[in-house]
């Protein structure tokens, strides 16, 4: 047993000394992340800055080419109607909607005009960057290069990034959001550009640091119990620790009190970049149920509709900012966006014309389920309140009610279907559920009750992060002391000169 104790303590001392500074950084940056994340250009603001499509636009444009593959969106760019055809997460091609020729690249003048219109501020300077920088450190942005980086002359020191290829805004930062990221998201997520752009390497670095952090926290918990001292009657509550020196004593006490939460924070951080092994929680389906349900748009299905007929069908009191071509339940649809960027008016295209689509009924959902998942039993109900898996989101508007479709398949798949658009908003299988609890719940206290009481969730996060900070700071100090002791022992012993008395 004594050998086990010694090994545990040595592992904790070594690993804790190496990683204690990283722990301090994680917890201190976590305070900032509770209130501010990585900067991004608001999707809603970008949508609301789109120019309106008019009848003259629809009279002049052609229907999308049948060769267009991917999601097709019609909107205006620099005053002209264009089709944006998406082939990946960010990759897209832009076509002139009148000629169907690929649009020319955005000029610097056009980028400046867009940036000034978007912010309401005058340009200070502009540069054309050929590679991604600290504020767009994701490799999936590479297809959008080169990018105009516009510096605006406003009190917020705003910077707008506009792709030359697509002529669209892809990032917005302010001095406040940049400093918040420098103190929060960047050190916490290790979002340093040179590392983050190498996604495979970044994942490995975060995973290994987190794994070693788990080792530190587990051995720390064990060491805390090993060093536990039985209290005497009428003694102070801190007397369970055998240590007398300040840093040793408070590292032991706070580690004992908050060590478990430190462990859960690090463990959940590990699962933010690592999936649950399929050997533990198998995934049987080769293609996810959500991908089966949400079909890729087929421009050929929409070819029977002329653009003038489409305009006559969708024109209304509110002007149109964007139209999206969709295929839902094997039916050609048009999603028409007016003043709400996440809630379109839905129209279906038939041989007889284009008609407004009422919300998808239980019968329609059931019918498509039977067609898409032949031979699979299911349960379908209308969900009128958020549950443990379908919750409010800071970035996306989650509608209520929604259709909750639970498949009786090997993966226990559950999908939440938008009643207006008929597409899957969120989907979970057994593996996804495990990761949801191991990551989001443990890392951000994303539990249903706490999500309903946001102030309480943030208070608990702040309190537990404060405890974790004390554990980490005291561990960092002790780590420095431990390294110094080891360094002194490893140095060669200096022999003191011996004076020899002479008889002369």
TrEMBL record:
Alphabetical UniProt keywords: Membrane, Transmembrane, Transmembrane helix
Species per Swiss-Prot/TrEMBL record: Labilibaculum manganireducens
Residues spanning the membrane: 21-41, 205-226, 253-274, 459-480
Pfam family, one: PepSY_TM
Protein name: PepSY domain-containing protein
């Amino acid at each position: 047993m004594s050998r086990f104790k010694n090994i545990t303590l040595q592992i904790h001392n070594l690993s804790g000394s190496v990683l204690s500074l990283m722990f301090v950084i994680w917890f201190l940056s976590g305070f900032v992340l509770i209130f501010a994340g990585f900067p991004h250009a608001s999707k809603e603001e970008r949508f609301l800055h789109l120019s309106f499509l008019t009848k003259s636009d629809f009279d002049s444009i052609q229907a999308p080419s049948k060769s267009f593959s991917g999601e097709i969106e019609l909107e205006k760019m620099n005053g002209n109607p264009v089709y944006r055809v998406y082939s990946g997460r960010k990759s897209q091609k832009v076509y002139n909607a009148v000629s169907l020729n690929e649009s020319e690249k955005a000029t610097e003048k056009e980028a400046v005009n867009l940036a000034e219109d978007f912010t309401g501020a005058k340009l200070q300077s502009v540069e054309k960057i050929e590679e991604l920088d600290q504020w767009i450190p994701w490799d999936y942005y590479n297809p959008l290069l080169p990018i105009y980086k516009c510096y605006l002359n406003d009190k917020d020191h705003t910077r707008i990034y506009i792709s030359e290829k697509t002529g669209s805004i892809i990032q917005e930062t302010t001095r406040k959001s940049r400093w918040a990221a420098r103190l929060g998201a960047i050190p916490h997520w290790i979002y340093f550009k040179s590392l983050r752009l190498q996604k495979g390497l970044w994942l490995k670095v975060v995973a290994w640091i987190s794994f070693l952090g788990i080792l530190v926290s587990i051995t720390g918990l064990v060491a805390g119990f090993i060093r536990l001292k039985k209290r005497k009657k009428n003694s102070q509550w801190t007397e369970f620790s055998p240590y007398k020196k300040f840093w040793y004593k408070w590292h032991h006490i706070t580690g004992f009190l908050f060590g478990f939460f430190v462990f859960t924070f690090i463990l959940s951080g590990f699962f933010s970049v690592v999936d649950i092994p399929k050997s533990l929680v198998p995934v049987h389906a080769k293609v996810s149920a959500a991908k089966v349900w949400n079909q890729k748009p087929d421009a050929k299905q929409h070819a029977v509709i002329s653009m003038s007929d489409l305009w006559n069908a969708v024109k209304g009191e509110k002007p149109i900012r964007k139209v999206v071509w969709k295929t839902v339940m094997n039916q050609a649809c048009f999603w028409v966006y007016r003043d709400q960027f996440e809630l379109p008016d839905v129209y279906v295209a038939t041989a007889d014309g284009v008609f407004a689509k009422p919300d998808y009924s239980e019968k329609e959902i059931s019918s498509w389920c039977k067609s898409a998942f032949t031979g699979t039993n299911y349960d379908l109900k209308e969900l009128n309140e958020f549950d443990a898996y379908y919750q409010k989101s800071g970035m996306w508007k989650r509608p209520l009610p929604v259709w909750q479709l639970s498949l009786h398949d090997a993966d226990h798949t559950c999908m939440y279907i938008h009643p207006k658009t008929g597409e899957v908003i969120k989907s979970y299988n057994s593996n996804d559920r495990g990761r949801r609890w191991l990551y989001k719940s443990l890392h951000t206290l994303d539990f249903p009750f706490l999500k309903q009481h946001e102030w309480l969730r943030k208070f608990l996060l702040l309190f537990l992060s404060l405890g974790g900070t004390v554990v980490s700071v005291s561990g960092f100090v002790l780590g420095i002391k431990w390294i110094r002791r080891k360094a002194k022992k490893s140095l060669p012993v200096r022999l003191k000169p011996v004076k020899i008395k002479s008889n002369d």
